[in-house]
Structures are given as structure tokens and as C-alpha cells.
Amino acid sequence: MPPTHATELRRMLQVFLDITEERSGALSPRAALAKLKSALARGHLFSGFSQGPPEWQPGLRPLRLDRSTTEPACDELNLYGLLCAEVGAVKEYSSTSLLWNSLYAVQPVILQWIEFFHPMNRNIRLKDDAEYSYGVGVTLISLFGGLIYPRLVMETQQLASWIIGHRLDVYITDFWVNLPRYVVDPSGGTAARAMEWMYTLFRCLRGARMPARIGELLLERTSENPRRLCRSIAYYAEVIPVKEYATLTDNLWELACHLISEAPELVPSTVRLVSAIKYAADFNAWTIAMGSGFYLQNLWIRTSSLRALEISLRAGVFEILVDLSRKLPAFERALHENLDIFCSKSHGSSGGRPDSIAKYVAGTRAVKDAAAETRVRLESCDAAGASTLFTAPPRVSERTGTKVTI
């Protein structure tokens, strides 16, 4: 394939990057769009991949092609996805726009490439080549963004139907669940972008009143294995840099709580999450500490086994909550709420030792002291303003880049 195709595509992407990043010497949006229209009119901008992937049909045996066969197209597809996203930041998407219709004229071919490249279809050997596995992963995330980001202006129900109709919900969910299996040692930025599109999908489907779809996808893509969902959540909590992607870290815990409510079959019987709360609290990342605490609390409530409670106790969850309750009033209520959860779970649940749990909680001096210390303040609180652990506390300091681990 002539190198001029990729060169022209890269130059066009740079034009729009200069605008969105407000670089000196950037063209005006009108001039950039005119330049793009001219390039599209010439008809060669997407020649590097417009013929589609190698011959393969869904349901047939994978082709198992090596890197040299598909790498050039993979590189240009990455540029295409980035270009669509950058154009979307400059010109709002409209289904009646001639520019967008021209830019998305290759969409059927793009969807074929996504289906071909997606590791779930096993057409390429990713684990044999760490660098190539990273390139394919980045390209898939780029294409998700290029196809969906400009369309976020659409009505929610319409967007959700479009995503489901093109199986992008399946591809995004599977990629999110299996990222560490598909990509060798992905960067924190790559994990953050995968997380971004999973969260976007979740919000879209909930906004369209289709939350059950998320549960169906998770059951399918995890093979109904609770450990796989738990490991995925733990993985993203560990690798996404808190400082650079603070909002996404918050979104992770929101997503995690909803995932276990939409797919109760995937609630694990054991969970090692206490360290996530402690790490966040040690560095004053209060919102993240509360988010991970919210997820842990949901697991306690929903699990059918007492193993999760016992593991949390051994990890020192109440000592951590006691310490937090002395730092922030929002956690005082949490201390008592979690005691109530433990008491209720110790009567009627199976799979554990309820007597030992109740004895441990009742006999923990630090918990008793903290309860006495905060009871007066709690009774005087406005119930509407301090009813749960998740009343947002003041942001007393900036988050740090320390990893939040599970």
C-alpha cells in the first residue's frame, strides 16, 4: 500500500489536533473542515483499509494471520478513529451533514475490521507479539471512540439502539472484561480509555432504560464466572493512575456498584477490597475512598455467603472505618451502617461462622469506642444530609498518583 495514504491521513489528523489542543498556528475550524472536505472528495484518504479485512466469515475457523498481513491497515484504522473523534470536537455530528456522511461512508468496512481484529474472534495472534497486541488494543479503543464519541449528541434511546444494532456493546464489554488477557502489559492510559468506553456504554444503556442489557452482556462475556468480574474491577482499580484520571477512578466504583446489581449472579463470595479504601484514605482521596467503600458495602449486602464479611474483618475494615470516622463526619454514619449490615448478615446467611462474626464485631474495642464517641453527633445530624456513607465530603486536598489496589 502506498505510504502516501497514511501520510495524508496523519496530516489531516494533525490539523484537527492543532485546533482542539489550541496550538499556535492552528487553522480556523472552517478552514480545517474545508481541507477535510477536499481530501474526502479526492477519494483516497481511506484507501489503506477501505477494501476491508482479509476474507473471513463469522462462524468459520479463525485465519490466524501474523502481524505483517494486517499491521499497515491497523495503523491507519487507528488514525481514522482518532480523526473522527477530533472532528467531532470541532463540528457537531448530524445524520444530515454531507461531511459526516462522507466521513462515515466507510463505516460498514470499519465494523468489519472491528469484528476481524477483536481478540474474541481469534483471527490474529496477539500474545505472540506484545507490541502488536498493544497496537491492536489501541486501535480498537480508537475506533470505539471514533464511531461513538461524535454520536453522543444523539438522543439516548436512538444511540443505544445504534450501538446494540452494530454489536458495539458486545465488543466493548468483552474488551473491558478481558483487557489484561488481550493486551500484554497495557499502559494506565490504555486501561483508562477502555474504562471510559465501558462507562459510556453503561450510562447510555441506563439512560435508554435498558440496564438489563449490561447484566446479560456480563454474564455472557465472563462465562457466568463471578471471579472474572471481580478481577476486572480489581485490575482497573490498580492500573488506572488516580491523579491523571481522577474522574474515571470515581466512575469505576459507580460502575462496579451498578454491575453487581444488574448481574447479581456475578457477586463473588469473597472479596479483597479493604486495601483500596485504605490506600485512598492514606492519600486523602476521599471521594475514591467512599466509592470503593460503597462497592464493598454493596458486596456485603448482596453476597449469599459470609466469606466476604470474614475476609473484610481479617483485613481490618472496621479499624479503617474508625480512623476515617475521626477524620470526616461522612464516615461516622458509615461505621454504624456497616455494623448494622454485619449484624443482619450474621442471622440467616449461610457459608461462614455467624457467631464468630457477631462476637468479633461486638468485642472490637476500637469500634465500640468510636461508636460511643460519635453517637451524640450522629443523633444531632440532619438525617437527609448524612444518611449514608456516600454523602460527598469536602475535597480537602488533591488526589495523588498512588495506585489504588485491591
From TrEMBL:
Protein name stated in the entry: Uncharacterized protein
Organism the protein comes from: Schizophyllum commune (strain H4-8 / FGSC 9210) (Split gill fungus)
